[in-house]
Amino acid sequence: MALATGDKHGYAIMQEVEVLTEGAVTMGPGTLYGAIKKMLKAGLVEESDERPDPELDDERRRYYRITGLGSRVLEAEISRMEQIARTARARQVIAMRRPGV
Hints:
Blueprint: E1 8-9, H1 10-20, H2 29-42, E2 45-47, E3 63-66, H3 68-97
Antiparallel strand pairs: 1-3, 2-3
């Protein structure tokens, strides 16, 4: 999800995850790069050729972008999570209607 808004390097992805989760999730480099390696292999992300101005960037950074497949998988995951949330809300409403619950 961190790449849905554009290409990012690893540290920027870690920062975006922290912002998106309001600090609930912090990723260390090992976790992040392990996940990136798996997503690269699965074709969900790819290395980006687009780079900022060299004066503004560290040439050692690798940038990543979401692929078409990655976007479709992200949309499916969002739909799945929305369904889980709807089910949880419905069950909570049902539980609140039961006497003694």
